[in-house]
Amino acid sequence: MRKRMISVILTAAMIGTMLAGCGGKTDSKGGGAGQAEQAGGEGSSADGNSYTMFMRNTYVNWIKELKWYDAAEANTGIHVEYVEGPDDFNDVYSEIDQRIISNTLPDAVMTKLAQTNVYGPQGAFADLAPYIKQYAPNLQKYIDENPDYAALVTDENGAIYGLVKESPIFTDYLGYRADHLEKAGIDPASIKTVDDFTETMRALKEFYGKDNPNYYPLDGRENPIRFAAWFDCPSNISAEESNGIYIDHQKDGSLDIMDENAYTMVETMKAWYDEGLINPEFAANTRTEGDWEAAMINGNATFMYDYYNRAEWFMANGGKDADPDYQMGVLDMFQDENGNILKGTSCCKYKEDCVTAVNAQCSEEKIKTILTFIDYFYTEEGMIVANYGVEGESFKTESDGSKTFIVDYAAEEATPEGEKRWSFLGDRFTVCRPIDNEAFFAWNSPLIAEAAERINTDENVMKAYNLKYTVEQTEELSNLVATVFDAEIAGIVSFVTGNKEFSADAWKAFQDEMNGLGLSRIEEIQLEAYHATFGN
Amino acid sequence: MAGRKKAGTALASGQRKKGIIQDFIKSIKKDWILYLLLLPGLLSLILFKIGPVGGMIIAFEKFSAFQGVFGSPWVWFDNFKKIFADPYIPKVVINTIILAILTVVVVFPIPIIFSLFLNEVRLKWVRSTVQSFSFLPYFISAAVMVSILYTILSPGSGIVNNLIRSLGGEPINFMAKPGWFRPLYVILEIWQTFGYSAIIYIAAMMNIDPSLYEAAEVDGANRWDKILKITLPCISTSVIVMLIISVGNIFTVNLDRILLMYNSSVYDTADVIQTYVYRMAFESKGFPDYSYGTAVNILKSVIAFVLVSFVNKMADKFAETRLF
Known about the structure:
The complex is a heterodimer.
Chain A: H1 2-19, H2 35-38, E1 50-56, H3 57-65, H4 67-76, E2 79-85, H5 89-101, E3 108-111, H6 113-122, H7 129-135, H8 137-145, H9 147-153, E4 163-166, E5 173-177, H10 178-183, H11 194-209, E6 236-237, E7 242-243, H12 260-274, H13 280-283, H14 289-298, E8 303-306, H15 310-322, E9 328-330, E10 350-358, H16 364-376, H17 380-388, E11 395-397, E12 403-405, H18 409-413, H19 437-442, H20 446-455, H21 471-497, H22 504-517, H23 519-534
Helix pairs in contact in A: 4-17, 12-21, 14-15, 21-23
Chain B: H1 2-30, H2 32-50, H3 68-71, H4 78-85, H5 89-107, H6 109-120, H7 124-135, H8 142-153, H9 159-166, H10 178-206, H11 210-218, H12 223-234, H13 236-248, H14 255-261, H15 267-270, H16 273-282, H17 290-319
């Protein structure tokens, strides 16, 4: 009898454990109200003044720390319950697929335009166009005033399935250890061209490298093929031509290998590699972020070309502790041999991988709540709250009407994780809203604010375009890019590191190979999309 | 007469079927506890192994998560046609095959040799300790293993490059050399799996009749003779079964490990079918192409099945042992 009892209990326990993960989190009040309502705790919020939103967990953690965001919720009386997704962007979008399959989509989701373009017309996401007209007058005004935005989010039937996040526009900065240059007797103002830069690195290598075998003047993380703009060969697009992989690489990984300057770029990078001027692990694309940061802090590197505020990051994260003389600076953009400025690549105004879509199963009341909250950020008051905070607490208005922050950037950004702070880093996703570029750069350390004022001009920064692709074009492009982009980077890295012999013939063969894999087709599709987007 | 014969045969067949069912019911009644304990395993097999195979149908569709398996439009063999038209497929197939062959040829014999030698160790505690330690790496995750490898081979501070430097050589960035990717992958595979595989062979050795060794000793056989003429032939069935399983897994490389070891420098040798499919389905910049990824996997499985059948037939022909 005991044996039987144990067997039955064991079997029940095993089946119970095995099936524990099966089935959705449906609650009893669903009653056919749709998946958002059915999804219980992670699904729809029952409260009329709140809604749920699925988002990348890092963004959720940042939102929880923002004082201005709390002020916005208080002003609108609407609360958003965030459902945390994974950290990796690809995993975020995969989870949306899984949530669609398992009917567990919350009221709103952070998704990407490629997903809303497919799932929207199929019926997974609500067409927001009529609701925006009705419930979001300020957002509607913004759409009307920004035809590029309207073209990007509206499909051929006039439907809007997702709202795209606006992003501040910036280029990467060439940061350097100012104290290194000073001790080596080099004037940063003398570095005007890439040749000057190479010569400077040679001088630094001789100065610092003679006693330190681990010293390499130029260091970085991950993809080393990021210098195309310095050689005037980034991918580009216009009404006449499309060169290189432009889609998703308007800024990072931008390169036109068919441009003759690309050959010079590889030749120069190879010289840097052979002479020990660039960290060999960085050149080989095996450099981790942590190793690069350590090298920049402990004096094993002088230059880095990375995210706009990275120079400040080193100052605030160990630079001064490692060396009391530690001082970072930001160089001007390079010039070509004729003195023309070589423009840096920049990000697009609209971030297509941070899109807000609304579950089609949501009631009109719920859609109204979501849009009312988003609409607030398009009002004058909402824009001030999101870009400057609360008057008297985080900013003051000057006599000429301009606004100045009265809280200290360094102190606020150094607040321990999880604590509330004033922060206006608009490159991070919170809610779809307009970005005040002036406020964005003003909310930085004096080092970066000064660099931004000096560098972020039309003269220095290339314009990047959001192109509207059809679903078929997106499908073909994403498959081609999955092949060609990695192969392109791998080929160049092999030339630079000497894994492949570099010569004019080898370069020609490489160009042909890339075209054979689909580079020329990618360029064709991009050009078609440009014409479709801008109508010329 | 013939008709009667047929009717008689049908009747006999029906009775036989009825008999089988009755026997089965009787067996369930008698050993219901055993059948009950079988149930979770059976359910697990059906729900999580056999059931999802049906999902492979999306290879013939233009799959959308929203439209589901039954609602997505059919494209029949379009995805398979795309595979053969894809100029990049030959490269990843060749890389996969080279890696797989290396894995089978180099990795497969190691646990056999290891278990043969371990079996010869006289002290039982030494044998069991070595066996336990050899088994431990099996539980280490791919992420930890590759991190250890990176640390050991680091050009700046790794033990291997320190040794090279102390001998007057130039440090080598092993993780960035395409020629080193395959050997390193295979070394990790050996490190991680040889202890686990050895257990199967050691278990087979436990079943060898000790009188065979005693008789060989009487005939003057030394230890090498006993290994080669008694132990090895006696475990040959296990060896062949393991070989057939290995061939079945020939296209199944360790994706986690490759993704962790993967970088632009080793792309020429490291990009395999799985990494390509992963890029298409999960790292897509546009809408993920799950259907194409599934089509590639189906093709891969069909080839693996053909190979397994071939090896199984060869094993039956030459060693009179077969898996199925």
